[in-house]
Amino acid sequence: MQAVAADGTVTCGADARLLASLAFDNANVPAAGASAVTLATLTFTPGRTGSVRLTSHGYCLQGQLTTDSEIRVAAGTSESDAFSVTAGRIGVLRLPGSVSASGEFALAWTSEREFTVTSGAFTTVRLYGRHAVGFEADTCSGWFKVEGPVQ
Fold it and tell me: 129-150 pLDDT, tens per residue?
């Protein structure tokens, strides 16, 4: 059971499975060297202490490559928290610049990690995207959700 307040925050019962979710469309990810951007933000209040699962999936349009391009997507409370997890928990899209100097490529990604929460504590998590390599901005679309509790 969950309740949604006027400000969009979600309060969840102890046995909730989907605590919060949000779709996003055409979020701009700047070229390498810039800070990560926030693709989506979820705020919720868990009904019990324990672990929840932060999951995301979607695609990014990488276009007109003249150099290598790599976009990374990860969830956490901050950019440093999001990207401090093991590589297998981060969504990665990589295209070599030799693929084509024209055209667009839509590549899919997924990310997942467990996150510790405290019952009744107002919690905000974000999904971040950044170029690790690449000189052009690209756009990403997808879905971000919090599931729990993790058994």
Answer: 999 888 888 899 999 999 987 7
